[in-house]
Specification:
Elements: H1 2-8, E1 12-16, E2 21-23, E3 31-32, E4 36-40, E5 50-52, E6 58-62, H2 69-83, E7 88-93, E8 98-106, E9 109-117, E10 121-125, E11 140-144
Parallel strand pairs: 2-5, 6-7
Antiparallel strand pairs: 1-4, 2-3, 4-6, 7-8, 8-9, 10-11
Length: 160
Amino acid sequence: MQERCIQARPDVWLYAGGELGIEVEAYREGRAKPDAILAPRKTFLGQGDWSDASRVLMVVEVTSYDWDTDRRDRKEKPSAYAAAGIPIYLLVDRDHRTVTVHSDPTVDGYGHRHVADLGKKILLPRTRLHRTRHRRSDGFRHLTCTGRFRPHPVDGTGPS
């Protein structure tokens, strides 16, 4: 996933590992720690434990195997991330073996949802993530999600 995102925009980084927190007012105590965050490089440098979500391009969550995952990952987080204006919420659902792309955020939730089986190509909507020269004529870009999730070290800066 990191490689595909960098192909679209070399100035972004997929911060993975669930160690970075973002301020998301509509979620529990106003804070969330996604499994991965796509944002411009160095977005989180000097931001402390909880950063503003305004520069976040996409959040990624992988469902947990616990009693709270349905409410948390499938209901509360999509609503909260949309209200925060995060353009894309990508949910890797291990229970259902699917990937769901939520897009078109509003204060009431995401306006569009696309579901695909793990291993199938998914389409990421045209957002700030993509530059004009990378857009397809229909406004989408392919991304293959194999279901493998490899966290990278998180130091808040990404590679230089």
